[in-house]
Amino acid sequence: MPRTEFLALLLALFVQLMLFAPVAGAASEGIHIKSAELKLVDEVYQLNAHLTITLGPTLEEAVKKGLALNFITEFDFRRRRWYWFNEEIAKVTRNTRLTYNPLLRQYLLAEGSQQLSFDTLADALASLGEISAWPVLDRRLLYKRYSYVASLGMRMDVSQLPKPLQINAISSRKWDLESAPFEWSMSP
Questions:
Q1: Burial class of 157 by CB neighbour count within 10 A (0 to 12, 13 to 18, 19+)
Q2: With CB atoms 3.0 to 4.6 Å apart as the test, which of 37, 71, 103, 165 could cross-link to 161 if both were Cys?
Q3: CA 154, 155, 158 angle in degrees (round to 5)?
Q4: 121-143 pLDDT, tens digit each
Q5: How many angstroms separate the CA atoms of 115 and 127, rounded?
């Protein structure tokens, strides 16, 4: 093989490694919505969803040092309209706070007045990613003749971080934790 061809092949391999190596690492951290569905129970649609939440090294270290991370889960339900913007039927949010208690050596998830404790960060994140029987929509708001779009998303609320870290969060992707919107169509 001539030297120029060898160098061209080596350069091509290097470029591929540089392009795809960061993607493999970045795909592992973040919030990924695996599934979501609405189930009708006693005239109320309840949301069941499974999300995978993986913190990067910066966020893991921040939690272990006592920083609270606040997560916002947003559910949006709209009626499709061809002649205008989609009509918003329901928009529901819930806030969950993840903290670490070094005295008890436990991770805590708090939502409203309910608090759960976990021995490991992985267990706490798995629980945060399980949404079960969350009432989001009254059936009486829906009509059979229309088609609807449901959307689910989760993000870390950087506005709840201490002010010096908020500036860092704006300028660094290490603090950026947000899922892509998960949308699906539905007819009642």
A1: middle
A2: 165
A3: 160
A4: 999 999 999 999 999 999 999 99
A5: 12
